[in-house]
Amino acid sequence: MISSQSDGAASRTLSEGEIVLQPNQIVTGHYVTRMNIPWLDSPFPLEGILVETAETRTWMEDHCSWVVVDLARSHPRFQLSLESNRSPGPARTMSKLASPKIDALRQSTVGPESMDEALAGYDILSSQVHRLIHSLASEEKLDVVQANNAIGQLASSLEKNLGALVWLTRIKNRDSYDAEHCVNTAILAMGLAHALEWSPEDIEMAGLAGLLHDLGKLNLDSKILKKPGRLTPEEFAYVKTHTTKGYEMVKGDPSVPRKVALAMLEHHERPDGLGYPMGRKAFQVQPISSLISVVDAYDAITSHRVYDPARSHHDALSILWKQRGAQFDQSMVETFIQFVGWVTPGTLVNLSNGELAIVIETRLGQRLTPVVRLLRQSSRGIEPGPVRDLSSSSEKQADKTIRVNQILPDGTHGVDLKSLSRELVAGA
């Protein structure tokens, strides 16, 4: 569907169920997903906002010349209108962004039991990655079967332990980036595939693709990979060969599904055709490759790399958002942002009262007031303090509700998330 703007804005191609409105046309119950201004310049959640108050509508009237409303995610009365305007035909599938599973992370509670199970699964995946690295270094035959089994076990408990597993992807150690990145990408890939309501088989394939996607780098010169400065054009061209090297390593392996092998080859392709190794455009790339591209970039941006310091959760989402439709598949980015939300369990934050805390639990509609565990500096280092539900009316200071004030990069202030994980959730 194409809609042109009366204010001179360029025509936009919209998904089914989306309409472009001037702010004075917005009514209560509309779900706004896009604006003519950068979304990060607004006070609203990155995944969109349901217009429920006059204040929200007034803000949009004051700051925007047009907005995009998704009728499928708006109040049911608009969905009925949408259905009535459809021509007869085959049954249509509701947008994945309207799926209840998109909010699974914000409905997940992290407790001692789920953390123990998640840590066990995380450690098994980590050991499998190190085993694969050792096999390549020793020029032994690559055996992916055990890694595949580990992914299957983790996938079976994904929904139950989702919050704890995403928490563990916030563990960042400079000296273990390669292995941690593979494990984190696998977990985030399974989480996003779950949010997209992929089949159990495809969720497992997404996890395996995340685990193996950078395997080809293990056959490259580590001096170039770990070069702290900017790569020369020749060096960058060399590093880009990791996609084809990884694909060649597994393409004939019966234990590696073809979709997984192709994801290893295609995860640096771009919708605009400027990616590598083949310059394929969006319609030429399989969905699992587009998914790995997004979660791979997110974890890399939030990690310490030799040429780039770790950035915060918000910085990473901002980069993905700005590059949607160009470097990254637009729908994958939008779904991922709604899946992870404003903060995730395990996110390190500064509160409005100056205290340092870690997010324990996030909830729908409470992006700035999650459940947190305060962190205290002692002679032994950072130690867990009390648990605080910032949405509680009792959590006030000087008649002001205490809120999340700043999202910090993982590991800020020397917080060792893995060693503190069990302690941090014990009082939640």
Walk me through the structure.
The chain is of the alpha+beta class. 40% of the residues lie in helices and 13% in strands. The model is unreliable at 1-13 and 83-98 (pLDDT under 50).
Attribute tags:
about 425 residues, disordered N terminus, single chain, 15 helices, five-stranded antiparallel beta sheet, about 15% strand, four-stranded antiparallel beta sheet, Hypothetical protein af1432, globular, 3 domains, 13 strands, alpha+beta
Q: What does the secondary structure layout of this molecule look like, with pairings?
A:
Elements: E1 2-3, E2 12-13, E3 18-21, E4 31-35, E5 49-50, H1 54-63, E6 67-70, H2 76-84, H3 112-137, H4 145-156, H5 162-168, H6 177-195, H7 200-212, H8 222-225, H9 233-239, H10 242-250, H11 258-266, H12 287-301, H13 313-322, H14 330-340, E7 348-351, E8 356-361, E9 371-378, E10 381-389, E11 396-397, E12 400-401, E13 404-407, H15 417-426
Helix pairs in contact: 3-4, 3-5, 3-6, 4-7, 5-6, 6-7, 6-12, 7-11, 7-12, 10-11, 11-12, 12-13
